[in-house]
Amino acid sequence: MNHAANSNGLAGLKYTPNFLRKLEDIFAESDYVLRYEKGNFKSGYCILNDQKVVIVNKFYPLEGKINCLIAIIREINMDMNNFSEKNKVLYFEISQTQLKL
Question: What pLDDT, on a 0 to 100 scale, did the predictor assign at position 99?
Answer without folding.
Answer: 52
